[in-house]
Structure formats: C-alpha cells, structure tokens
Write a structure and sequence with these properties.
membrane, 607 residues, RCK_C, RCK_C_sf, single chain, Alpha-Beta Plaits, transport, globular, DASS-Related_Transporters, 28 helices
Length: 607
C-alpha cells in the first residue's frame, strides 16, 4: 500500500513535557507503587500545574469529573447493583443451568450464553461476581472441574460487554473522546452487529479449541483444604504444663518461634478465644490453632513445651470449628474499595470475625506471615466463617463468596421494576430521546426511589476507583491531542502502512492496543490510543471512526493475561490457574478476534 505521508511534526518542548508525563503514567500504572486511581489524580494535578506546556487549564483538568462518560459509568454501577440485589440473574442462571444436566459442553454453552448476553446491559464485573458462585456450585454438583468453566465465564463477559454502548466502561470513554475529536459519538447499538459477531466467534472458539486448551487445574476430588495445601500449613498445638510459654502473651510466642508463625485462635476449656489475641496470656493446657510456613511448622515440633494436639486442619474435621463455622473461599473484587484501603488479613479477620487461613495470589499460595499481608484485588482467600459472616460477605460489594449460598435479602418482588428501569434506560437512549448520561442518571434515581437499591447502598455500589481513574486519564488524552503529542506518535506508526495491506495494518494496530491494555488499564489504554488512532487514520487517509472502533474493541477484550482485565483476576485464583493458562487460551483467541474485528469493521464501516 502506497501512503503519502506529511512531514513529521517537529518535537517541541510541549511534546517533551507530555511524553515525560506519559512515561511516568505508564510506569505508575504498570508497577502500581500507589493505587492507580491515586496515580491518575496525581497526573491530573501535574497536568494542570504544568499548564503552559500541557495546555490543560484547571477547567479542563477537572472536566473529567463532569464528563458524560464518568457520570454514565457512575450511574451504570447503581443500575447493575439494582439488578444484582433483586436476584434476577440468579434466577435466570438457575433456570438455564437446570437445562444442562451433567453435560459439560452444555454447561459451558450456558455459562457463555448467560454471561455474554447479560454483560451487554450490566457492567461485566458484577455479572462475573454474580455467576462465579453459581458456576462453581454447578461444577461441584456435576463433577466438572471449575477450571473448565471460569475462564470462559470471564471471556464471555468481556466479549458480551461489546454488544452495546453501556456494556463496559471503555465503550463510554471511547464514545466521549470520539465525540470530542471527530464529532461522532456512539449510539446505544452503534456496534451491536460487530459485537454479536465477536461474541459468536469467541463462543465457538471456547466450545471447541479453547475447551481443549483449558487445563483442569482443580481436581474434582479435592476439598478446599487440599486446594490451598492447608494441611501443610495449619495445625493445632497444645501448651504443656511445664512449657516455658505458660504466662507468655500470644505476641511474644509468635516473635520467639518465628516471624511467619501466626496464632489464629486459642481453645481453652471448650471456649474459643479469637479477639485481641496479641496481648492474651497463654495458660497450661491451651490449644493454639496456628498457621505458619512449612519450615516453621517443622521447627515447632522441636520446641519444648509445645506438642501437636490434633491432625492438621481439614474441611470436614476441624478442631477450631464451632457451631456452623466452615471453610469458604472469598474473592477480593479487583479495583474494590477494600483493595484501596490497604486492609490487612488481620483487619479482615476482626471485621468479619473470620480468620484468613491461606491466600492464593496470581496462581501462587502466599507463604509469608498473613496477619500483616495487605489484601489485593483478585486475591482468593480461604476463610473460616460462620453463617453470619458468610451473609455479611455475600452483601459486601468488595467481596465475592465463591460458594453457592442462598442470599437472604434478594428483593425478588422488585425484579420487574429493576428490569423495567434498565430496559427503559436502553430504549430511551437508543431512540435518541435523551442523551445516555441523562437516561442513566434517571435510571439510577429510579432504582433508589423504587427501593431496588436503598439510599445507603448507593455509594457502596459505585466503584470509585474506576470513577477517579476516568476523571484522571481524560485530561491526559486532551493534553496529548492539544500539544500534538498524539500526532507525533501516530507518525511513528504510519510507515508500516506503506509496506503492508491496509487490513493487515488495522490488525496490527488492534494487537498493539491489546498488548498495551494488558500492561495498563483498559480505560488508560482508550485515553491513550483513541487520539493516536484518529491521527493515524488521518495520516494514511483512512476512516478515523473505524480506527476508534479498533481501539474500543481491542481495549475491552484483554484476554492474554490474568492481570489485563478485572474479570480475569476474579477467576484466576478460584480456578487454580497459572499465569500461562491465560496466554495459552487467550492468545489464539486474541489473534482470531484481531482478524474478525478488523474484517467486520471494514465490512460495516469501511477503512
């Protein structure tokens, strides 16, 4: 393809300043020395402080908070929460799964169909949160490894988010940036035909090739204690009458034996002591439930005055279980308020009266001392919880209880109202009667007024990290466009269009965006790449809107790593996956979608 390119824009001081800020932004987003929402707001402040070079005035810097995309995303969180609290998806899931029986392929098809279809109208993160317990329960009841269903669940929710404008946050941000730069925003069903094509392609792949590539990481015959290798880490010891530890505090014992040893509970004459353990004095005959590394646990056997009192902990026979306490898996929702609060395992235990016995993070079990370990989004926790704690965790938007537990407060009488509100938001916006931001805010108000969401639940239902991230990255895109930095970067990419066919160039641009999305957030990827995409299209004489769609689809389908998208993180630990599992299953699908999406865009909109 022969493309006549204009001369490269000269590198000016303004561009250098913006490139330096962009580099710092990428470093902060990739390595996360501070939470990404705080990083985004910090970048916003720097952009405004360097206004003479960045051309971001205080008004432009703060415009992200009043941006239509930000407000629409905020409202959609409440709408999604309204649907979730009624139990509508739970009922639909139960009905669909009842049709599949023990057939693994039918279960897979039902999982993909349910997640993909609902994610077009409800934010895909709560969709996955709602379906993980159901999918896990079905897998256990039908002797299917949950590993075979959870990656497809995450992928289907991602792909389903591309059915409508409101399916996922990057769609709304891309629409806003596109409207500002080329004066063409997305309508509600702007790319639904392409979204259907992408979802069908993904479904066929997952039902055939993908199904064969997904390993059974969790054995059907293992219980939770086995999955977390808990028998190697947790045990009960008895303090003998002549023990030198009689009269010592729990904190002193922990420090004297080893820094990675934790005493979780004291069993004393039939009573269980678990609060304020640090300063509790140990008595002769006490039994201590402790957790430690393998090395320290072996060392304990040689300590005078301490002896093993029982077999290591098991799910069915646990000497520390009282009443209805049992082992449950809890997933920390990525980008949740909890992950941003630096909550430690110890604080979690006090808040829910449920000690954390083990943590699986990015496929690996943590062996260090857990009490001071800060919980992160995507962590899978093995928790010893009573029924009251399980109910608390079920209603807390920051956590997903991986087991199927009947939720006591589903507002099932509100299902018609909640579904009607979401349908009204979609229909009114699709007809162009009112802008999507207005209909979404009206729907949010309707959810509260109708009682689907209680007023005190509104703030908990909003993912504030996403809101602040949006508000922070929007001014960066404005600065890149205003200073010519986006145009300069576009010029560095366009020479490839001179040596390959245009469609191949489009596919390469799709993969470039997808790779960038894997190392930074999808919202940041959209803010960075949409201005570049418009300038690339302008340079090579292509359709700018088509390139905006390329970025939108590539940024919303981060399939190649578990850390590229929040739904991948949610299933990572629960499925027992390894990092390479996502590469093995996701990379072929990502390449396939690069071809299908590019051909679809060329067919529907032209390039």
């Amino acid at each position: 393809m022969d493309v006549s390119l204009a001369a490269a824009p000269p590198v000016e001081t303004d561009m250098l300043v913006v490139f330096a800020i962009l580099f710092v932004t990428l470093v902060l987003f990739v390595f996360e020395p501070i939470p990404i929402d705080i990083a985004a707001i910090s970048i916003l402040v720097v952009l405004v402080a360097l206004e003479p070079w960045t051309q971001v005035t205080p008004e432009l810097g703060l415009s992200g908070f009043a941006n239509q995309a930000t407000l629409t995303v905020l409202a959609m969180f409440v709408l999604s929460d309204g649907i979730q609290r009624t139990g509508a998806i739970r009922i639909l899931g139960d009905w669909l799964i009842s049709l599949t029986g023990d057939d693994e392929r039918k279960q897979l098809a039902a999982t993909i169909g349910l997640a993909g279809s609902t994610a077009g109208f409800i934010n895909n993160t709560p969709v996955v949160a709602m379906l993980i317990p159901m999918v896990t329960d079905i897998a256990e009841r039908t002797n299917t490894s949950p590993s075979k269903l959870l990656i497809p669940l995450s992928y289907a929710a991602m792909l389903g988010g591309m059915l409508t404008l409101i399916g996922t946050s990057p769609n709304l941000l891309a629409s806003d940036i596109s409207g500002r730069i080329i004066d063409r925003s997305f309508t509600m069903f702007e790319f639904t035909q392409l979204g259907i094509l992408v979802l069908i392609t993904g479904a066929i792949y997952l039902l055939t090739i993908g199904h064969r590539l997904i390993p059974e990481r969790i054995d059907l015959d293992t219980d939770l204690a086995d999955q977390f290798q808990l028998r190697e880490y947790v045990s009960t010891i008895r303090v003998t009458a002549d023990s030198p530890f009689v009269g010592a505090t729990v904190g002193e014992i922990e420090n004297r034996i080893g820094r990675d040893l934790e005493i979780l509970r004291i069993l004393r004459r039939g009573k269980i002591i678990h609060r304020d353990l640090e300063d509790r004095t140990v008595r002769a005959g006490d039994r201590l439930l402790l957790r430690s590394s393998r090395r320290t646990l072996l060392e304990v056997t040689t300590v005078p005055g301490l002896e093993f009192a029982a077999e290591p902990i098991a799910e069915e026979s646990n000497p520390a279980v009282e009443g209805d306490r049992t082992l449950v898996e809890v997933i920390v929702v990525p980008e949740s308020a909890i992950a941003g609060e630096s909550m430690t395992a110890n604080e979690f235990g006090r808040r829910f009266d449920s000690p954390i016995l083990a943590i699986r993070r990015q496929g690996e079990l943590l062996e260090q001392r857990l009490s001071t370990t800060v919980l992160r989004g995507g962590d899978t926790l093995l928790v010893q919880a009573a029924s009251e704690a399980r109910e608390q965790l079920m209603t807390d938007p920051n956590f997903v209880l991986a087991q199927e537990v009947e939720r006591p407060d589903y507002r099932r009488s509100k299902i018609p109202i909640a579904v009607g509100i979401v349908a009204s938001v979609v229909i009114v916006a699709a007809l162009g009667v009112l802008p999507i931001v207005v209909t979404a805010l009206a729907g949010m108000a309707g959810m509260v007024i109708s009682g689907c969401v209680k007023p005190e639940e509104v703030y908990d239902s909003i993912d504030w990290q996403v809101i602040f991230l949006l508000a922070g990255v929007i001014p960066l895109g404005i600065s890149m466009e205003a200073t010519g930095a986006a145009e300069y970067l576009a010029y560095q990419i366009t020479p490839l269009a001179d040596v390959v066919p245009l469609l191949v160039f489009v596919m390469a641009f799709y993969m470039l965006t997808a790779i960038i999305t894997e190392v930074i957030t999808n919202l940041a990827s959209v803010a960075l790449m949409v201005p570049i995409a418009v300038d690339v299209a302008t340079e090579i004489g292509s359709e700018p809107f088509s390139f905006v769609l390329v970025v939108t689809f590539a940024a919303s389908t981060a399939l190649m790593t578990p850390v590229g998208y929040q739904t991948n993180l949610m299933v990572y630990g629960r499925g027992g996956y390894e990092f390479t599992d996502f590469i093995r299953v996701g990379l072929p699908l990502q390449l396939l979608l690069a071809v299908v999406t590019s051909l679809g865009i060329a067919a529907f909109w032209g390039v």
